[in-house]
Predict the 3D structure of the following.
Amino acid sequence: MKHSGFDIAFLHPRYWLLWLGLALLWLLTQLPYVFLLALGRGLGRIMLYLAGSRRHIVRRNLELCFPHLSEPEREQLLRENFASMGIAFFEMAMSWWWPKKRLSKLLKVEGLEHLQAAQEQNQGVILMAIHFTTLEIGAALLGQRHTIDGMYRAHNNPVFDYVQRRGRERHNADSRAIEREDVRGMLKVLRQGRAIWYAPDQDYGPKQSLFVPLFGVPAATVTATSKFAKLGRAQVIPMTQTRLPHAQGYLIKIEPALSNFPGASDEEDCLRLNQWVEQAISQQPEQYLWAHRRFKTRPEGEAKLY
């Protein structure tokens, strides 16, 4: 990976407020973990009342995906989800700035042998993940145990992009950041036997997507996972990360590689992936990033859901 370098232009006065905010966040991040969890929940409550459009998206997603729940149950889940998003803000800062030793004390990992076995066989791996709110800290924690490459899109603010990339790179010194549109680059590293973090659970529009059910709702689902696995000669290994209760830290669970994947058709593969996504989300629905408009793209003739 080409490491981000500091640019003297980052000291321009237009960035001073951002630097001040980052400094205050760094100071807060020095607090004990239990305090950061509490601050995150408080931030989540503020977000719940101020972020009206996002609150609507989360509420609508919960209505679509969990119609069997009562309205009070869904409202409770909504509150827990915003609390999780608030905590994620401080988890991001922890992953950037906590000493590695301090951070590693929060990690519990299961199934690392599946990644190690693929590495020993020089077999590329699509590390199939989900957009949980613990995404940032999960990647940092796993990066301390195994090299992971990642799909990357530069942030519009160059100072924030610099700080973010430095925070991420320190856990994965020899990892590679691949631009999200760089398909050739992704296939190259897969064929070199490396592992790439990849999440197929969001709505990327109708191009190269198929409509298959997700929680019973037709959802535009990318076919890229199958294509990358085939062209990159790679295994698809599912993984999840979970924020454990009572400030116990985080569990990263790596599952065995999907067998017979890709399958007979893109439709079959997309359905199989969505079924796994459903199962993983259902185990910790409050930690999923419901603020994404997962069902934005609709089949032709169907009304919008948001």
Summary: The two ends are 39 Å apart (CA to CA). The chain has a mean pLDDT of 93.
